[in-house]
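Researcher: I'd like a candidate sequence for this fold, 125 residues long. If you have to choose between options at a position, lean toward the conservative one.
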């Protein structure tokens, strides 16, 4: 199972039904949040809710969808959800800046390209 999560598929790293670089980059980029579920066969990575110490009354969770074998922006979709703690102590849905999901997506794409370059060039000397 670890091979699938890291983007390998046993002996054949291309056996994942999704792009291995986008998959690994999504896991790397979202590692600041606890994972709720990962399914390399459907391409879905879902996180648990997480809050930063700087904003304890706000929490976020992210779902990334890797949709295909090509390394492109079209093969990746990201959804960000946000909640805030109200005066009665209950979490309530809050708006998310529309640019947030795009920023997360851009970071994943950048990391995926870095991983691909590392594979092409080999490990650093």
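Model: Candidate sequence:
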């Amino acid at each position: 199972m670890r091979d699938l999560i890291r983007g390998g598929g046993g002996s054949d790293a291309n056996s994942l039904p999704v792009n291995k670089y986008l998959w690994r980059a999504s896991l790397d980029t979202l590692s600041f949040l606890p994972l709720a579920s990962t399914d390399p066969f459907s391409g879905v990575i879902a996180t648990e809710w997480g809050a930063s110490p700087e904003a304890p009354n706000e929490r976020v969770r992210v779902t990334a969808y890797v949709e295909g074998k090509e390394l492109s922006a079209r093969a990746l979709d990201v959804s960000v959800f946000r909640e805030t703690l109200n005066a009665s102590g209950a979490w309530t849905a809050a708006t998310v800046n529309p640019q947030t999901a795009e920023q997360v997506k851009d970071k994943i794409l950048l990391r995926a390209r870095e991983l691909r370059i590392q594979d092409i060039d080999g490990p650093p000397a």
